[in-house]
Amino acid sequence: MASGTTSLPVRSSFGQTSRTDAWWLQPLVVAVFLLLAVIYLTWGAIQGEFYTFGNYLSPLYSPELFGDTPHALFGPRPGIWPSWLPWSPAFLILWAPGGFRVTCYYYRGAGYKALWLDPPNCAVGEPRGTYLGERSLPLILMNVHRFFLYFALLFVVILTYDSWRALWFLDPVTGQETFGLGVGTLVIALNAFLLGAYALSCHSLRHLVGGGLDVLFDKPVRRTALACVGCLNKRHMLFAWMSLVWVCFTDLYVRMLSMGIWTDWRIF
Amino acid sequence: MATAKFKIWRGDASGGEFKEYETELTEGMVVLDAVHQVQAEQAHDLAVRWNCKAGKCGSCSAEVNGQPKLLCMTRLGDLNTDEPITIEPIKAFPLMKDLVTDVSWNYEVKKRIRPFKPRAPDFEDGSWKMHQSDVDRVQEFRKCIECFLCQDVCHVLREHHMHDDFIGPRYLVYNAALEMHPLDTEDRREDLRKSQGIGLCNITKCCTKVCPESITITDNAIIPLKERVVDQAYDPLRKLVQLVTGRGK
Prior knowledge:
The structure holds two protein chains of two kinds. Chain A is 47% helix and 4% strand. Chain A is mainly alpha-helical. Chain A has one domain. In chain A, strand 1 (52-53) and strand 2 form a beta hairpin. The longest helix of chain A is centred in the N-terminal third of the chain and has 23 residues, at 25-47. Chain A is globular, with a radius of gyration of 23 Å. Chain B is an alpha+beta fold. Chain B is 35% helix and 15% strand. Chain B has ten helices and seven strands. In chain B, the strands form two sheets. A five-stranded mixed sheet of chain B has the order 2-1-5-3-4. A two-stranded antiparallel ribbon of chain B has the order 6-7.
């Protein structure tokens, strides 16, 4: 469609730019942190042990559908699970929060830049000449984000329940559960809060609560919901990172307690 | 008096090179002032497009030190004048001469977008009733000055030259202004998905970063349009609900 006598400038080669700032720094930091998080979470999920400590349950394993701890909802590992396949209770559930993050609009943009270098940063040459975008397989599947959102909202409820459970400690003398607060309770509760903030600031949720409508003045509930989600949405990137870092730390905290390396301080 | 060096692109579609100029700096000077000074004193045939010098006409778009900028809104005080400042034309459109590019492709794209189609008037005098809160959302998009810096920085156009498949961030914003308008009844989602290539946007937010009017292009225009396209093409659950309830478009 470009007209007439002139032609488009030639494509830049990889990394070619006239930018004089450290344009490589931001994607490098993002790539390092994303890869560290993926490596830790994968490692944590594969372990299949040291994921509970008393009333504390690691968020990587919550809900524990099948497993060997008192947190398991439906008993031990199902017999139909192939013996040759590695087992971890996390395998049954992590696809949902994982899918929510992979298809998240923020992580998509950040990942395309930092991991796929498409582009490495704004106004910087790319390594590949071809480009398909999100209109064909496999990346067209990113459009399923809202379905992962439904699961993520369910996980927020489950993790909130875990926070409540983390307030009830088993007294070894009486065998009764008593109300209390440990540092682990705060760690687990903050994880639920941050995942909640991340899910409630989601672009798809903003659309679903009212953003998809053109006329909202006669729908006060949806108008208010849109305003609230829209307000949170401005900090979606912040919540995405905070919740990612904190879910890793929460698993690490419970794991260290479970392994007897760290001691949980009881506040009361 | 202090001076600064400028490396300005000189040439046309057949080729060119950076040429270095040194000129005096004065307080409050913007890059366009420096270019005009060079033009007046040293390079009378230097081509630069400009008009308002107030950041409202969108004419003087170029790249300053590799960053898409309006020349008239880029203060030299904000740049490192110890090093030569690079000024070159925007990259997503054909070069005509020096800093001037042919942006006519954009006007052709605009013609292809389905125009505003209001519902029937609410009153006999042909007027409508709208609530301010419903209009507020699209007001942001009307700030666009069509400088095409967002088109320039978009890698789909800039690096991949997919002008036949993708309309670019500017026209996604234009679509959003129409599509989200409380009076509009047109459905542009099929066009967005197919001929206008919204799926080619991979949400890198470069367009938002360069917008001189601070329009939140990605979050407030492109992603909401992508979600509307999902409604129409990729959400069977929604289709089922609509089928059962008979509500929604």
